[in-house]
Write a structure and sequence with these properties.
heteropentamer; A: 203 residues; alpha/beta; five-stranded parallel sheet; four-stranded antiparallel sheet; 9 strands; B: 240 residues; mainly alpha; Four Helix Bundle (Hemerythrin (Met), subunit A); 77% helix; binds protoporphyrin IX containing FE; binds adenosine-5'-triphosphate; binds magnesium ion
Chain lengths: 203, 240, 206, 206, 203
């Protein structure tokens, strides 16, 4: 099968610091990429450069579009979860999911079942009354709302307990089986099967 | 009386009485005032608005003071029910103030030739209304209700300090509006047959306030404590 | 687009009314005097409240990462910006229109001037919301300085045009010219300002 | 107390000046007319800009956790609140005083009224800052305009007193009574409002 | 030696959920307490109740004051680091430390050496240009500014790489040797020597 995203010779520097240099990798359907590196090595920056949120990279990114041609711009449904989770404090868990699915529309049952899956049972209490880990779980419930093409997840395992961490591994495997790919970051290798890319720039 | 279930029981008992008495007095006062009191020799029949205007204007202020007292109790002793009282009183006070504003405007049109003038009494009433609006707005924007009660306690405490200052401003301002003629200490300057129905109206308005407050508070208590066992028990009993 | 609570609708309205009532209090309660001030006063209050309301339109979304998702979604971003501003204007600008009706009574404006006032306010406050959005985007994560400096001077033409329209209506003159100019400004402004706003937001990502 | 950048000083100042300049534009550039409006206009602009400036006094500290440290430190919290408001007033209220001097020239105010204007503005803007702090604390994490509508009704007496002081100075009457009342309000306000503000902030922790 | 803080029968419930019940522990000088629990079990709440930031606990907390008497209110110099780190984006690393030491005053050298200790060498770049882990490191540098009595640290190890984690362990041991105590939270036991308290409420 063709890779969904081909990255060649990607390099990036920030304030005279070379963060990464000459990165080459491919994201294949159903396969994962794990970006490992220490604090400040450029993991978050790499994700954001891949998604075109910041335009400071040098190199080539080719995305497979619907007709199986490679393109310069993103044509795949992507999901991004950064360090800030995109959870609104003034909305309830359920409303948060409804908000983030406004552009594609999702049934209430799907929202509720996603929340239950990640262990959030108090659907209608405000996110401001949730613990940090519970907010993270709400954000993870959003993975299940729609079949995205590639998930870009920044440090999926942080702020979670062991039970939630193994739940994530399970969910990722499940979504992989449907053809979705994950690009995730972390400080040490995780338990999911993936190709690992190590960023070894030291600040 | 401090605990919600106790209040609920107690208020269930007196509510029918209160309902009866307040509505009788209220209607009697209004009827007397609006239909059976003498016509004013200067203003004609328009003046009868006084029987709605003055009681509601004065109630608008008394309710605020009542709220400030509740606010103090809520802040200092954290009595739950006084916070609910405060919350339930706010919309009633706002409505009475609004009624005073509206009836005043209606009265102003024939007597002063305009709906509205920017004089001290009128402006201060408008400010009072704004403060009520701020209190209600703040309460509705905070989702945790006990927290919201404490927040509006803070606001009504700050508000009470402002009220006398607003009142004082009468002295520095040109004014079209009547200065106060009623006081508890001196004799009324009105004829008794105009004055007596007004007194009855006052009583009726205060009783109506008590009634509305009790009903609001009961609703508030039930909504707040809907998950408690005593509430479900209460309603099961009522159904039978 | 975004779920909101009822207090969102009411607060700009009350803000507007309070600012309006500042003027008779601070200046003079005289009727004729107030009437001559009224168009300007209503316009100033409308500008200030729509600006104040829009200032935070992006800040929370930026902080909590919702804005990232916004740019990653497949819809063109300037359409999304437009939708967001439109929604925002509907919930804040609209109550202001209502309030301006009430306040024109309090300030003794003649009834004949209500129609041009409402029309010009519709055009004007929407233009202000667009401007405010750029200001908000530029000052994301910073103090309000850029917002204040950039937006307020640009709002002066709107202010001029709007008050001119209302004043000439009071004097029974033709006011359609002013409304046409405001309409034209809006027509150019919608695509132009939306695109600029997208750029301004993206600046914060570098 | 807190380290700040220069933009903090300038923002309210520019906002103030722009709002002031709105009036000749929106109303009428006639000299006598403007002179009669001036005290009220300056006061309204000063109130609005000091409110706008103080509105965010706690929000960032609350969000990033600095406010927690504040309450954990051993100093009594209401003193800290007072210090914070004072600092804030020094960096925002002070430039406004300067700007009001400039604008009273623009608006053709007589020189004799400058002293009472400055005195009343000092008292008034500081009182407004205290009020604004409560509003900011009560509306932490909510919309900015909510805090405005909480605070504005309470600011009306200040506005009344302030403009009365300046107007009576223009008419060569005694204005010290107004200043005394404002001083008294401030004296009661400082401890009272600081305590209430502490309570209001703590509410957000529950 | 006398314990600095005695907690007895502490219990707390939130929105009809019993978070913890009948907790008893003592914080002795130079010793640590570790609060372990899953997401939403009440770790953050416990820290904030201990510090008096939220007033919803039931039970007794006694603090040792300077004259070795027990007191109801906090009289010890505490340091608290919550999920939000108290780092201002618009200030540089150095300015951030200066700000947080405003009430006791600290020399510039101490600030710089603290920053170097945690591996932040670009003292004058804005915190908004730092990665999440780097911000966390700045916050850790604040531990070193003064000898606090008890440190209450919420999830000290999150968002950090392995090198920084072992640095923390080292720093904690060092401060323990000076008599400071740590009360920390986490999802799993860490490498520091401590008494562990497990919160096992499940949401
Ligand atoms: C919107 C317009 C008006 C407002 C907001 C208003 C407000 C008030 C208020 C607040 C009071 C209570 C005063 C107190 O505390 O003692 C009052 C009393 C009264 N008002 Fe009005 N008023 C308005 C218009 C009028 C008009 C047009 C008249 C008649 C010409 C009028 C006649 C009175 C009288 C006779 C009293 C009783 C005064 C007393 O003896 O205390 N009001 N009004
Ligand atoms: N303001 C609040 N109002 C009501 N309930 C709250 C509030 N804050 C937290 N809670 C509830 O209290 C419980 C404990 O929250 P807490 O933040 O202490 O968890 P935690 O142990 O720190 O979890 P995490 O590991 O995710 O940080 C959660 O179930 C949460 O939903
Ligand atoms: N806006 C910016 N301007 C300049 N430099 C920046 C900016 N944002 C980040 N950097 C620098 O880029 C480097 C990489 O940051 P990035 O956030 O990608 O790190 P990271 O690998 O995600 O680290 P962490 O594990 O701490 O999240 C850091 O050294 C940081 O100082
Ligand atoms: Mg990162
Ligand atoms: Mg926590």
């Amino acid at each position: 099968m063709l890779p969904k995203l081909k990255v060649s010779n990607l390099s990036c520097s920030r304030a005279d610091n070379q963060l990464f240099d000459d990165l080459n990798f491919e994201v294949h359907p159903g396969q994962n990429i794990e970006i490992i590196g220490s604090n400040g090595s450029g993991k978050t920056t790499l994700l954001r450069v891949l998604l075109g949120l910041i335009d400071i990279g040098d190199g080539e990114m080719e995305w497979l579009d619907n007709e199986n041609n490679y393109n310069n711009f993103r044509s795949i449904d992507c999901f991004y979860q950064g360090h800030s989770l995109g959870i609104k404090n003034l909305l309830s868990a359920q409303e948060n999911l409804r908000l983030s699915s406004y552009s594609f529309g999702v049934s209430e049952e799907k929202i509720l079942s996603s929340l239950n899956r990640v262990g959030i049972n108090n659907h209608s209490s405000f996110a401001s009354e949730m613990s940090v880990g519970q907010k993270k779980r709400i954000s993870i419930a959003r993975w299940l709302l729609k079949d995205f093409g590639i998930y870009f997840i920044d440090e999926p395992f942080s702020a979670l307990d062991d039970q939630a961490s193994s739940l994530i591994v399970e969910i990722i495997e499940e979504l992989n089986a449907k053809g979705a790919s994950f690009v995730i970051t972390g400080h040490r290798p995780s338990e999911i099967t993936s190709n690992q890319i190590t960023l070894d720039h030291e600040v | 009386m401090g605990s919600p279930p106790l209040f609920f029981k107690w208020s269930s008992k007196i509510l029918p009485w209160l309902l009866f008495i307040s509505i009788t007095v209220f209607i009697a006062g209004l009827l007397w005032g609006l239909f059976y009191s003498p016509t004013d020799y200067k203003q004609g029949d328009v003046y009868r608005i006084i029987y709605i205007h003055v009681p509601s204007a004065i109630l608008g202020q008394s309710i605020f003071m009542f709220m400030a007292i509740c606010g103090f109790i809520t802040m200092v002793w954290r009595v739950k029910i006084s916070g609910m009282l405060l919350k339930s009183a706010a919309p009633i006070g706002a409505s009475f103030t609004l009624i005073a504003l509206l009836t005043g405007s209606i009265w102003g049109k024939p007597t002063w030739g305009t709906w509205w003038v920017w004089d001290a009494r009128l402006t201060s009433t408008l400010i009072l209304f704004f403060i009520y609006a701020a209190i209600i707005g703040l309460h509705s924007s905070i989702d945790n209700k006990t927290k919201a009660d404490r927040a509006i306690s803070i606001l009504s405490l700050a508000g009470i300090a402002i009220i006398p200052i607003i009142k004082k401003s009468v002295d520095w301002w040109q004014t079209l509006h009547q200065p106060s003629t009623f006081s508890l200490t001196s004799a009324p300057s009105m004829t008794p047959d105009m004055y007596q129905p007004l007194l009855l109206c006052f009583l009726g308005f205060y009783l109506i306030f008590a009634l509305l407050l009790t009903m609001n508070l009961r609703a508030e208590v039930v909504i707040r404590e809907k998950n408690r066992s005593w509430v479900s028990k209460q309603f099961l009993n009522l159904e039978r | 687009m975004a779920f909101r609570r009822s207090s969102t609708y009411i607060t700009p309205l009350i803000f507007f009314l309070i600012v309006i009532s500042f003027f008779p209090i601070a200046l003079s309660p005289d009727q004729d005097f107030l009437r001559s001030l009224a168009p300007g006063v209503i316009w100033i209050a409308a500008l200030l409240s729509s600006l104040l309301a829009i200032e935070t339109i992006f800040s929370e979304d930026f902080r909590d990462g919702t804005l990232d998702e916004f740019f990653i979604s497949n819809d063109p971003s300037f359409v999304l910006v437009f939708a967001k501003v439109l929604c925002h204007w509907l919930v804040t600008g609209f109550p202001i229109l209502l309030a301006s009706l009430i306040s024109s009574l309090i300030l003794y404006l003649p009834v004949s001037s209500l129609l041009p006032m409402i029309c010009s306010l519709i055009l004007g406050t929407f233009f202000m919301s667009l401007l405010g959005a750029i200001g908000a985007a530029l000052s994301l994560g910073k103090s309000a300085i850029l917002s204040a400096i950039i937006v307020l001077p640009f709002s002066i033409p709107t202010l001029l045009m709007g008050t001119a329209a209302v004043s000439s209506a009071i004097d029974y003159q033709d006011y359609s010219g002013f409304l046409l100019i405001m309409g034209a400004m809006l027509a150019i402004g919608v695509p132009g300002l939306c695109l600029l706003t997208v750029e301004a937001i993206l600046l914060n990502y570098e």
